[in-house]
Amino acid sequence: MQIYLPIAEMSVNIFLILGMGGMVGVLSGLFGVGGGFLMTPLLIFIGIPPAVSVATEANQIVASSVSGVLAHWRRASVDFKMGMVLLVGGVAGSTFGVWLFTILRGMGQIDLVIKISYVAFLGIIGGLMFIESARAMVRSKRKTPAKRHHHTWMHGLPFKMRFRRSRLYVSALLPLAIGVVVGVLAAIMGVGGGFVMVPAMIYILGMPTAVVVGTSLFQIIFVTANVTVLQAVNNQTVDILLAMLLMIGGVIGAQIGARAGAKLKSEQLRILLALMVIGVCAKLAYDLVSMPQDLFSLGGLAAH
Amino acid sequence: MGVLRTCLAVFMVLAAASQASAKELVVDLSKSVVAITTSFSGSELLLFGATEGKGDVIVVVRGPLRNEIIRRKEKIAGIWVNQEEMVFEQVPSFYAVASNRPMDEFLSSKIRSTYQIGIDYLDLNLSEEYRAASGAENFRRALIRNKQKQGLYGRKPGDVIFLGNRLFRSQLIFPANVAVGSYGVDVFLVRDGAVTSVETTLLTVRKFGFEASVFNFAHRNSLAYGIFAVLIAAFAGWLAGAIFRKA
Question: What pLDDT does B57 receive?
Answer without folding.
Answer: 94
